[in-house]
Amino acid sequence: MAGFTLLPSRLLACPSRSLPRLLHHHANLILRCKMSSSCSSSSLAQSITLTSQPNEPVLVSAAPGISSSDFRDAIDSSLFRNWLRNLESESGILADGTMTLKQVLIQGVDMFGKRIGFLKFKADIFDNETSQKVPGIVFARGPAVAVLILLESDGESYAVLTEQVRVPTGKIVLELPAGMLDDDKGDFVGTAVREVEEEIGIKLKKEDMVDLTAFLDPSTGHRIFPSPGGCDEEMSVFLYRGKVEQETIRHLQGKETGLREHGEFIKVRLIPYRELWRKTADAKVLVSIGLYEMAQREGLLPRH
């Protein structure tokens, strides 16, 4: 077998996932703190000024139940800073001056150790012409990756998927190996390789990975938004192709993997690629098929 290394099952229990790190502060953001350590959650507030609306300060406040430390962490988190940066980017909501951000209410903070993993808040953004507020409930979780792994054996191409418990859906879902970026370096391909190692038990080489989202128009930022109506998650989708013996296919099928101490209970499932599009409702799978097929049709993929 060439191109990747199968890892013993016992190695999968070893945690290699570091906690999320905060990204650098947005240089154009000016913070004006109006908060004291003695404040209650109902009175926690902070005023910020954005370069896109210098005469319209934005009030950021905490909902009841949010502690002062969680509030400070939320304001300083990479999740919140990146959201503000996107607002003022070239294609951002505030870029052309037709809309204004009035206030933000921090409603929920989920910590990964000492750092924020998930952040929920409500943003009041108004259209300046009509004074109408646009929907603004945000579940922030940051950038992520997914990997379409295609293994060819005896003339058949197999997609390697994970079967996982997904509590939000109430179901067990068949999906692509995927995960969140764990640091502030933006190492999408490194994260993709690590997620495959943790969830599938095979070690891929970075140089063998093809970024399918890199073929998208630059206006997209070379990322996809799986659920932009409520979540900030932006995802890179990678492709790996390899040739293996049937013994490897049999070894991977049904293999139990994942980091148990992180609550990951995963089974590996291999599906013939020709059947993949109808075997799962996972949007990552369906998007990856579209990207792969179009890139192949346009001759954009490197020679296999």
UniProtKB/TrEMBL annotation:
Keywords recorded for this protein, A-Z: Hydrolase
GO molecular function: hydrolase activity
Stored InterPro entries: NUDIX_hydrolase-like_dom_sf (IPR015797), NUDIX_hydrolase_dom (IPR000086)
Annotated gene: LOC104737206
Co-factor requirement: Mg(2+)
SUPFAM superfamilies referenced in this protein's UniProt entry, alphabetically: Nudix
Endpoints of the signal sequence: none
Official protein name in the record: Nudix hydrolase 14, chloroplastic
Residue intervals of the Nudix hydrolase domain: 140-293
Annotated Pfam families: NUDIX
Lineage: Eukaryota, Viridiplantae, Streptophyta, Embryophyta, Tracheophyta
